[in-house]
């Protein structure tokens, strides 16, 4: 993997998730049996905003919807967490895991970083992505990117090209089997985690999808996110 300078990126939030089992529409030649994503469309993302999720979302992570969790969410909302399930600080994510997720098997804590090339384009278009949405408040993704917070060092896994259609991370390039297009057109192959190895490759794929998102992906704004894995607990 090419040298990555974290100073070139700002935080796009932290996400608690599990591995995805490859489905029938994914390429068996290009994708591992299990891979990762921060997309709500194909990945299970731990629910932190209790009114924005179903009971099934909580059950997936063994989270009990207790008065303690509801109080925590109300206290932290728009401070350290944002709609729908964006965590603003690494330590907040670790605190949530320790307090509310009893089963930590197959649990991943991922941080997402947005390259400085895409910060202003995203913030400029983000309000238009929410047109027609009932709640017009700022989404968590726009808030954390707008803060331009630095990314802590961790295990770099690669890049995921994602789509924001209502101001959230809703889709991934893997939602529509674009790993096949990536390979056939540009010889871009997902690594063992399901991510793209370099920023240059991720940017190339992003620009290709954005030539016509309705054909190559989902309507919305596409951007490459640097994905970093962090330990579930702080290490000395």
Walk me through the structure.
The protein is α+β, with helices and mostly antiparallel strands. It has one domain (6-230). The protein is built from eight helices and nine strands. The protein has helices at residues 55-60, 67-76, 90-100, 116-129, 140-147, 178-186, 199-210, 213-216; strands spanning 9-17, 20-21, 34-35, 81-82, 86-87, 108-115, 155-164, 171-172, 221-230. The strands form three sheets. Strands 1-6-9-7-8 form a five-stranded antiparallel beta sheet. A hairpin with a 3-residue loop joins strand 4 and strand 5 (86-87).
Radius of gyration equals 17 Å
Tell me the distance between the termini.
Answer: 27 Å
Helix content: 25-40%
Mean pLDDT: 91
Give helix and strand order, one letter per element, not per position: EEEHHEEHEHHEEHHHE
Question: Stretches where pLDDT falls below 50 for ≥5 residues?
Answer: none
User: Largest sheet, described in full?
Assistant: 5 strands, antiparallel
The share of residues in extended strands comes to 15-25%
Query: Pairing-aware structural class of the strands and helices?
Result: alpha+beta
What is the number of strand segments? 9
Shape: globular
Strand order of the largest sheet: 1-6-9-7-8
| Count of discrete structural domains | 1
Total count of helical runs of at least 4 residues: 8
